[in-house]
Design a protein that fits this description.
By secondary structure, the protein is an alpha+beta fold. The protein has 16 helices and 18 strands.
Length: 543
């Protein structure tokens, strides 16, 4: 999935710093200040609004933060940090699925007595999950799971997507509390798929009332919170769901989320307990100030299972049918200099799989930094020095501005002129994943779930909905299909390493680095931890 830190916007330069510092000491309104001081209200802030609260639509960490607070799926991840937080646990399911027929049949029994939040209030049944998953996959919903490889192993998805069948035949409701999934081939990561927000239960009557387009503004689910109000671009208020099925949660009954608050301003307000949880990751400038100052104990870190990369659109000029040029770019970028620009909060990457991903080869290195050879390859690719001009799209932030400038400098050294185009998150996502919109992008991918398949199926497969490079290789797709069905972990990981080699040989990306992520919180927050899958678990924190 796309990266949460990538949503940060450009920060003011020195001329505006005095204004920002002054604003940090005064709340934007009295209501925000009183909320932050209340022991019954957790306050959070982001520099941009959530895209959607519809779990069939929203596919970014900001949206997932809101969705996970409001909805629940059959499975979830353990509420802790580090590798332990990647362990699957039952959600609405009463227990982990029963797996039979060589990994082709998953039978899930629901907890009885799980209810949708007010105003629906009725009990959740197996039919609700069948409805919700089919809705997420339906063409008419216009969500990212239409023709997605995530759910494609379920029998009958192809017929459903082409309109030949009104339902997915591989999803069976056996009784009120039992749902069964039948796959065409085994898929080791299928339990992870059942934990995605796209498999969250939604009430059909509310969708029918508001339609797919507006359900997100009136979201009702089975999660720890329910939506009280959402003033787009300004504020969202969540209230404790009185019908939530996990006893004792959430600890804090009310969450106020403010939008369009600058990332640096979030930190300043959190230092003064005017804000509890800054939603944007700590930037380089704030990290330097926080790591040795009086607030260092409120700084929390965790290695990211993600990758920053340059996507070279293999279906657009100048990269189409020009692997020589794409290889030149791989050899031109000084990754170690980039890491210095982010104050060492990263590790260099030369392949697809992050070093923290199970099965990854931490020593993988296909291209070495060699600007002299890169310059020769540019000429072999058909471009004289300074004749190739490109625009690089990226989401502007204090860190990414510096990274982008470093990339521009490196490419200038091999005779390629790059114009930087920093844009908002909405503009980037609407552009990057649309064929023919942009040829060259600085972007990020972070895990949807902790399995190597998540770094190939959604972003490098021929039918991927999030394929920024528009890369397609049927041989790589076949290897991916085989890997998903392989029950031998060692052999499966070896297949993904072969896929990594095959992809990098064609160089649709320039892998750059994997982040070491830092979060900050106010001194009021107790029990805060950084979760490796979900950005925030508001229900777990105390004040």
């Amino acid at each position: 999935m796309a990266y949460r830190a990538a949503f940060v916007k450009s920060f003011v330069v020195l001329v505006g710093m005095v204004v920002v510092l002054a604003a940090a000491l005064v709340p934007t309104n009295a209501g925000a200040h009183s909320a932050a001081a209340s022991p019954n209200t957790l306050t959070a802030a982001f520099d941009a609004d959530f895209t959607s609260l519809d779990p069939a639509i929203g596919y970014d960490p900001f949206s997932w933060t809101g969705e996970h607070a409001i909805f629940s799926s059959l499975l979830d991840y353990a509420a802790t940090t580090g590798r332990a937080g990647t362990r699957l646990v039952p959600g609405v399911a009463a227990a982990m699925p029963g797996v039979t027929n060589g990994g082709r049949i998953y039978t899930v029994h629901l907890r009885p007595g799980v209810h949708f939040a007010p105003p629906v209030r009725r009990e959740v049944t197996a039919s609700d999950f069948k409805y919700s998953i089919e809705r997420a996959l339906a063409k008419g919903t216009a969500g990212p799971m239409y023709q997605s490889p995530f759910f494609s192993p379920i029998s009958g998805t192809a017929a459903f997507w082409t309109g030949k069948a009104p339902h997915i035949r591989g999803i069976h409701v056996l009784n009120r509390y039992t749902i069964q999934f039948r796959l065409d081939t085994p898929d080791i990561a299928f339990e992870n798929i059942l934990a995605l927000p796209f498999a969250d239960a939604v009430p059909h009557e509310i969708v029918a009332r508001y339609g797919n387009k507006h359900f997100g503004d009136h979201a009702v689910g089975t999660g720890p919170y329910m939506l009280q109000s959402w003033q787009h671009g300004r504020q969202m208020i969540l209230l404790r769901n009185p019908l939530y099925f996990r006893p004792g949660l959430p600890h804090v009954p009310r969450v106020v989320i403010q939008f369009n608050i600058d990332d640096h301003l979030q930190i300043l307000r959190a230092e003064r307990n005017q804000l509890d949880l800054p939603g944007n990751l700590v930037t380089s400038a704030d990290y330097l100030a926080l790591r040795t100052g009086p607030y260092r104990h409120q700084l929390v870190s965790l290695p990211d299972i993600g990758v920053w990369y340059l996507a070279m659109n293999t279906q657009m000029a100048p990269f189409k049918n020009n692997v020589t040029l794409r290889r030149a770019f791989n050899m031109a970028i000084d990754r170690m200099r980039i890491i210095r620009f982010v104050n060492g909060r990263a590790v260099p990457m030369y392949g697809i799989l992050p070093p923290t991903m199970p099965g990854a080869n931490p020593g993988f290195r296909y291209y070495k930094y060699d600007p002299a050879t890169a310059a020769k390859l540019v000429r072999q690719a058909g471009y004289a020095p300074d004749k190739l001009q490109l625009t690089m799209l990226y989401i502007s932030s204090p860190d990414s501005d510096r990274v982008a400038d470093s990339i521009r400098s490196d490419l200038a050294a091999i005779g390629v002129k790059v114009t930087l185009k920093g844009v908002s998150a909405d503009t980037a996502y609407n552009t990057v994943y649309t064929p023919g919109k942009t040829s060259f992008t600085l972007f990020h991918w972070g895990q949807d779930y902790p399995d190597p398949s998540d770094f190939f199926d959604p972003i490098l497969a021929c039918k991927s909905s999030s394929n920024a490079a528009q890369f397609c290789d049927s041989a790589v797709d076949r290897m991916g299909n085989n890997a998903r069905a392989d029950t031998d972990p060692a052999r499966r990981y070896q297949t993904y390493r072969k896929m990594e080699l095959a992809v990098m040989a064609q160089a649709p990306w320039v892998p750059l680095y994997a982040d070491i992520l830092y979060e900050f919180h106010s001194s009021r927050v107790k029990g805060f931890f950084y979760h490796p899958v979900w950005p925030f678990l508001y229900e777990q924190y105390r004040l």
